[in-house]
Amino acid sequence: GFYVDVGASLPFDYSNTVTFDRCLGWEGLCIEPNPYLVTFLKTHRSCSVVPNCVNSEVVKSKAFSDTSGNFVFSATCLPLGEILVKAGLRGRRIDVLSIDVEHSELQVLRGIDLYDFDIRFIVIEVNPGANWLEVDSLLLPSGYAKISILGRDIVYARMEELFSGSFANWLPLASVNAAILPKSWAEFHQRVIDEERAEEQRRERRAWQQGHRRFQGLPRVRGWQHTLLLRTSPDRGRKP
C-alpha cells in the first residue's frame, strides 16, 4: 500500500499513518514543514519526507509561531497537487490520504484536483476552521462518500472502492439495492434538497396542528380563530 500524510508532525504520537509503515510495510510520503519534526520523521519513519507546508497556492515564506505568538520557523507552501506530481504520484494508487493541518484543511483540499489522482480513502481532521459541510462540498462532488466519523476525524472513500474494492462484501453495502443509489452528484444533491424540503414541510404541519389543537380549547370571538388558522396554515396558497 501507499499513503500520503499531510501535516505528519511527530513520528508516533497522534499519527494516523505510523501503523502503515511500521506494521504493514507500506511506502509513504510525509509532508511536514517544521524542520525539527522533519529530523525525527527521517530518523524514525520509512516515508519520504517533504519539508513544505501545504496551501491552495504557492506561499514562498510562511511564518509559523508557537502558542505564545513567538516566531519558530518559516517554510514554503505548495499546493498538494503540485507536491504529489513532483513526487511522481500522478497515476499511482494512493490508498490513504491523511490531512491534519490545524485549521487549514480547506486550503489543502482546494490545492488539488482529486480527479487527477487515484486516492482511495481520505482521513481529514475537521477543526473549527473547516466545518463538515464545507469539506463535504469539496469531496462529495469529486466522487467520495463519507463513511465514518471518528471523533474529529472524518473518513471518506471513493464510491467505486465501496462496491468493487475491499468493501464490496461488507454486509451493510452488499445488502443495498443499487437502484436506490444516486447515479451522479447532481442527483444526490437534488435528493438531499428534496428530503430537506419535505422535512421542513412536515415540521410546519406538525407545528400548525399543535397550534390548531391549542386553539380548539379557546372561546370563539367573532371568527378570529378560524381566520388566524387559515392565515397560518402550511397549505395556504398551495395547489392541491
TrEMBL record:
Pfam family, one: Methyltransf_21
Any GO BP: endoplasmic reticulum to Golgi vesicle-mediated transport
Protein name: Methyltransferase FkbM domain-containing protein
Domain Methyltransferase FkbM: 69-130
InterPro entries: EGF_Rcpt_Signaling_Reg (IPR053202), FkbM_mtfrase (IPR006342), SAM-dependent_MTases_sf (IPR029063)
SUPFAM superfamilies, sorted: S-adenosyl-L-methionine-dependent methyltransferases (SSF53335)
A GO cellular-component term linked to this record: endoplasmic reticulum membrane
Entries under Gene3D superfamilies matching the protein: Vaccinia Virus protein VP39 (3.40.50.150)
